[in-house]
Amino acid sequence: MDILLIAGLWLDGSAWDDVASALRARGHRPVPLTLPGQGDGSTSATLDDQVATVLDAVDAASGNPVVVGHSAACSLAWLAADARPDKVSQVVFIGGFPAADGTPYADFFELRDGAMPFPGWEPFEGPDSADLDEDARRTFAANAIPVPGAVATGVVRLTDERRFKVPVVVVCPEFTPAQAEEWISAGDVPELARAEHVEFVDIDSGHWPMHTKPAELARLIAAGTA
């Protein structure tokens, strides 16, 4: 099965190298995506450009692909389900949740010179980064790609309620399945409150399990594709 892999902010497709290798060993065809403005050299990319890249990959996939979104890119995966509800077989969210219609994609940190650079590790101290050693942190920060401002501040637009029928798996790294269910029940994640098929799975990692637990993450991604 084709499995599209969309990394979160500051990352390009290479973030999935170890996960992709493990998925191939399980007989799947992983397709790591490098998004416009996050690894292709563009600095003027928009959220619409990133959505178009994801939809092109969905359309090019063999059969009905699984679409995996990490962190902020959970919204991109959900936008794919919204635009292609009959094509996407499943959505997997890792360490994040989809933004609601009409809300900004990822305006989490200050823009500088038209882009949102990696803000350093202070905002991620605690469970997010506890499993990253100093070398891993230095490598991540050195390779982090500033996110174009028009991506970060782009507005999410969802239009097709058939997206709620697409099965969802929420992989819970720095938070627990119980916490995720509580947030949804409290109304903090309105999109998943309306989704008809939601499964929660735990992984003992920080916010970037593709770096620290790639084999386990690949197993969880593949588990729902049989």
From TrEMBL:
<feature type="domain" description="AB hydrolase-1">
    <location>
        <begin position="3"/>
        <end position="219"/>
    </location>
</feature>
<dbReference type="Pfam" id="PF12697">
    <property type="entry name" value="Abhydrolase_6"/>
</dbReference>
<dbReference type="InterPro" id="IPR000073">
    <property type="entry name" value="AB_hydrolase_1"/>
</dbReference>
<dbReference type="InterPro" id="IPR029058">
    <property type="entry name" value="AB_hydrolase_fold"/>
</dbReference>
<protein>
    <submittedName>
        <fullName>Esterase</fullName>
    </submittedName>
</protein>
